[in-house]
Amino acid sequence: MTLFLNPSSGLAVRKAAEELRDWGRNRQGLGVALIYGPVSAEDRLYHSKCPVEQRSVTALAEALKEIGTRWRVLDPCRPDFIMDLAGYDVALSNLHGPYGEDGRLQGLLDYLRVPYCGSGVGASAVAADKILCKRVMLTLGVPTPGWHAWSGGPVTWNGRPLMIKPPFGGSSVGMNLVRDPADLPGALADGAGDAGEAVLVEEYMTGTPMTLGMLELPGGSVVVFPPLATEAAEADFYDADTKLDVDSRGAVIVRAAELEPHVLDKVTGHVRTLWDGLGMRGSARIDFIVTEDGEPYVLEVNTTPGMSRDSNFAVGAAMVGLTHTDVVLAMLHEALARQPYDVPLPTPAFSSPTLTREAAVSP
Predict the structure, then answer these.
(1) Is the pLDDT reported for residue 162 higher than 70?
(2) Cα–Cα distance between 7 and 10 in angstroms, integer?
(3) pTM of the predicted model, to two decimals?
């Protein structure tokens, strides 16, 4: 059973931070593959719109430099990506959505036997699939807004607003809030995309959106950050443009959530259930909404939280006394302390350039 530390466990967190810093001093020259590139729609959006200084990969690179590692950004869109991976001690991924956060990259790294930060194949795959994750939440008894999966045909309108979400991806890319039934067909088509995938049709719940980070520390304990309230100042919901905030207009207000003790207990209970139930590792961020009557409902689980300097995850870590570099050290420590995936597979041999196919969508 996982030992969870709450924000009041200050002494335990400080001891863990000191242990991490001592560990980091002995890791000079550690080879870190920082994986980043415009693979998914979400990452293409950040790659094209987000200023370099605001990107997670920039903050991660600065932390790796401060630690003293031997690091390099590896772009999975390049044909030499897999060959290059084998030359590093550990992989730190900054990919989100399909082919980065959904278990496929994690499975590749397992096969190559390259240690990597964060959750494994199973937890990554479940969390990345919004519909599958909803089903698991119900199995675990974690409350989530009412929903159904739409894969074509008519939809019954119950008169209440709906959130239409594509099954994969993050940063609210492709999400639509529908208040008028006339807008529903277009939102469903947008959510299904060219692949015509099933779409998550979710009851829109009013309340305060919140997010909560979790980080695994040496010894396997997990510190639960204080929940943060995230309020969009210029949009109906916390959409992709609000999250990007390219112009630094302060389109979203992030503050410490003010929750009654019994509500906070419910929130932390749900996130603990999800961490153990999905088998997550390393780090995670869980988004939920708290209704006016104090009932929390989980919206989704992120196994690769954004790691820019001003990200919600970094803000939550700072509230328990952990710097951005401390967080990166914790991720690296967890990856390298984990029991290696060791089965009798052949060591991959790269004797010729890897053949590639042209991308269907250019970055």
Answers:
(1) yes
(2) 7
(3) 0.88
